[in-house]
Design a protein that fits this description.
The complex is a heterotrimer of chains A (112), B (112) and C (447).
Chain A lengths: L1 E7 L4 H10 L6 E8 L5 E5 L2 E5 L2 E10 L4 H12 L8 E6 L17
Antiparallel strand pairs in A: 1-5, 1-6, 2-5, 3-4
Helix pairs in contact in A: 1-2
Chain B lengths: L1 E7 L4 H10 L5 E8 L6 E5 L2 E5 L2 E10 L4 H12 L8 E6 L2 E4 L11
Antiparallel strand pairs in B: 1-5, 1-6, 2-5, 3-4
Helix pairs in contact in B: 1-2
Chain C lengths: L5 H26 L7 H28 L2 E2 L3 E2 L23 H19 L9 H24 L4 H5 L7 H19 L15 H20 L7 H29 L4 H15 L8 H18 L2 H5 L7 H19 L18 H32 L5 H6 L1 H6 L15 E4 L26
Antiparallel strand pairs in C: 1-2
The chains are: A alpha+beta (112), B alpha+beta (112), C mainly alpha (447).
Chain lengths: 112, 112, 447
């Protein structure tokens, strides 16, 4: 079992979600996050006082998948989230020891 | 490759980010979370009705690093986030299997 | 009571309500500009002032400011508790309306003036110390200055100083106190290094609208009669506010890159503050010039805090102090007896003496208010300490001073908190006043 996390541009969320649905991924968790990386932030000016905001708004996806699906899910997210410009984001893959569905107590693959 | 997660006091975010930049960390993700721990929450009072809020606002950072950098990054966060008071937060280290840059498809170390 | 004019009375009472409305408007104007953790603390500054000052005003403030003169410096206590301030007119102040109507109209000015100062020490002042400062400032600065400029027998009034609706009494005096506050109270933690971004500019725009609306009562109402002078002051108010929006936005666009919403709103307030002393003495064409000048001068004035390093958090000095001084001097330049026969001619109408009198009046009050405010702060600091502790400042005034938050976003995730008790009056309630990590009961966080 793996956890795949992806940090993507917020406007790409729907495309990625639809693409994942089409390969049978029906559950994921989304959070709004702030990213700091190569993409530049922006400048705000209030009564002449200028602030640079380094953090850029991003969306973080978390998906749990069986080992044999990892590369397909990674490719799907990559294709759907790509614009070719700096700031497209990253995908991370982590090992996961167990998953449990709270309602039923099912574990492992059954819980996904 | 490791993923380092840190739960810190929100007002320390900029200090930590700047300290990490200095040791060569080029990207991180941050978001607002609520923490429940040793730090006490607060009480709100509205027209005499009193509410105890145990969850304290925190910021969670996530940073991907090469194995050999992990301890330096942990130390950097430790030094820049510390105030010496209860509620300074915690740092967690997780194994990570892969990183993919969405724009280029680069993998592993190159994608960090 | 045959002298009572019902039209005038209706106009002044409505104007008084309009001026009252300005202070909650100011609360929103300021509240939007602070960080979200301080929105209620900032609003509360203005709101509690309405309560306290009005009570003091009726008890003794009105008598000391407008009562029978002593030494040209202050009124006496013969109108204490509004004794003798009745339904018949006071012919020296407003011969066609009840004395009570004049008194309550003036009360609204006494309320908003100290509220203006609060923008200078926003986000860091201890609530108890704030209350003591405001009460002392009201008694030591506002009451005498109102008497000097507006009270029968006041020495600046006798000199011929003209202040139609409060350029000196309201704006210059509060602006000078604001400078003292910013210097004495010190910078907010992180000023100049951390972002201190206005958390809700739409709130500030609502406040701007309320202030502007109320300002018609402030300026036109100061004619104290419903007639041609009120109409002239009304028109001038609108002309100056709009001209200052235009000039502020233009200079900001040319110099800073982009025209900002907060800049346009600030321009309007600068124009309104600047026309205040002149509204009933100058023509609309002159008001246009005054408004244009206000936008330019105040735009540059708010940058002074970065140059000199004082944290006038919400720009009270740059907008109200500088606006009040500029407007008062502009009366000396542009006033015309053709507009107001009770006034005087300014420099462009051949009278070179008025500008000197205006300058003397406004600078005397600025120096007096600045020094008196510093002394009051010094005493309050010795007694209670003016600032909240560092941990409370980081937490924000809403929680640390008031046990409230402005925005409950618990619906978006997280806990809304569990209900503890509805008995706020139990003797145990003080134990919950500590909000910082380890703070236990100390004299500082007791009510």
């Amino acid at each position: 079992m793996k956890k795949i996390e992806a940090i993507i541009k917020p406007f790409k969320l729907d495309e990625v979600k639809d693409a994942l649905s089409s390969i049978g991924i029906n559950g994921l968790t989304v959070s709004e996050v702030q990213g700091f990386g190569r993409q530049k932030g922006h400048t705000e000016v209030y009564r002449g006082a200028e602030y640079t905001v380094d953090f850029v708004p991003k969306v973080k996806l978390e998906v749990l998948v069986d080992d044999n699906l990892v590369s397909q899910v990674v490719d799907t997210i990559m294709d759907a989230a790509q614009t070719g410009k700096i700031g497209d984001g990253k995908i991370f893959v982590f090992p996961v020891e167990d998953a449990i569905r709270i309602r039923t107590g099912e574990r492992g693959s059954d819980a996904m | 490759m490791k993923k380092i997660e840190a739960i810190i006091k929100p007002f320390k975010l900029d200090d930590v980010k700047n300290a990490l930049s200095k040791v060569g960390v080029q990207g991180l993700t941050a978001y607002e979370v609520k923490g429940f721990g040793r730090q006490k929450g607060h009480t709100e009072v509205y027209r005499g009705a009193e509410y105890r809020v145990d969850f304290v606002p925190k910021v969670k950072l996530e940073i991907m690093v090469d194995d050999d950098l992990a301890s330096q990054v942990v130390d950097t966060i430790l030094n820049s986030a510390r105030t010496g008071k209860i509620g300074d937060g915690k740092i967690f280290v997780f194994p990570a299997e892969d990183v993919i840059r969405i724009r280029t498809g680069e993998r592993g170390k190159d994608a960090i | 009571m045959q002298n009572i004019n019902t039209g005038d009375t209706a106009f002044v009472l409505i104007s008084a309500a309009l001026v009252l409305f300005m202070t909650p408007g100011l609360a929103l104007f300021y509240g939007g500009m602070v960080r979200s953790k301080n929105v209620l603390g900032t609003i509360m500054h203005s709101f509690i002032i309405i309560g306290i000052i009005n009570v003091l005003w009726m008890l003794f403030g009105y008598s000391l400011a407008f009562g029978p003169d002593k030494f040209h410096l202050i009124g006496d206590l013969s109108w204490i508790g509004l004794r003798g301030v009745g339904m018949a007119p006071n012919t020296s102040y407003a011969p066609t309306i009840p004395h009570e109507a004049f008194m309550i109209f003036q009360a609204m000015f006494a309320i908003i003036t100290p509220a203006l100062i609060t923008g200078a020490f926003a986000e860091r002042m201890k609530f108890k110390s704030f209350l003591v400062f405001i009460i002392a400032w009201f008694v030591i600065v506002y009451i005498p200055v109102a008497h000097w400029v507006w009270g029968v027998g006041g020495w600046l009034r006798n000199l011929g100083v003209l202040d139609f609706a409060g350029g000196i009494v309201v704006h210059a005096s509060s602006g000078a106190a604001a400078l003292a506050a910013a210097i004495f109270v010190g910078k907010r933690k992180g000023f100049g290094t951390e972002p201190m971004i206005p958390h809700n500019i739409p709130l500030t725009i609502i406040g701007t609208g309320i202030l502007w609306f109320g300002w018609f009562g402030f300026n036109a109402g100061s004619a104290l009669a419903s007639g041609s002078l009120a109409a002239n002051a009304f028109v001038n108010t609108q002309v100056a506010a709009t001209a200052a929006i235009v000039s502020w936005t233009v200079v900001e666009w040319l110099r800073g890159g982009k025209p900002t919403t907060l800049g346009a709103a600030t321009g309007a307030i600068a124009g309104l503050a600047t026309i205040t002393p002149a509204a009933g003495y100058v023509s609309p064409a002159a008001a246009l010039l005054i408004g244009l000048a206000a936008g330019l001068v105040c735009y540059y004035a708010i940058s002074l805090k970065f140059k000199f390093g004082y944290d006038d958090s919400l720009d009270v000095v740059g907008v109200h102090g500088v606006g009040g001084i500029l407007g008062t001097l502009s009366v000396g330049l542009l006033a015309s007896t053709a507009i107001n026969s009770a006034g005087a001619n300014g420099l462009i109408h051949g009278n070179s003496s008025l500008i000197g009198i205006q300058a003397l009046g406004v600078f005397t009050v600025v120096v007096f208010s600045f020094i008196a405010s510093l002394v009051i702060f010094k005493v309050v600091d010795k007694l209670f300490g003016v600032r909240v502790g560092e941990e409370d400042e980081i937490t924000g005034l809403d929680l640390s001073q008031h046990s409230e938050i402005g925005y409950d976003l618990s619906g978006l995730g997280g806990s809304a908190g569990e209900f503890v008790t509805a008995n706020a009056f139990s003797t145990q309630s003080s134990e919950v006043l500590s909000v910082s990590d380890e703070t236990s009961l100390t004299p500082d966080n007791l009510p």
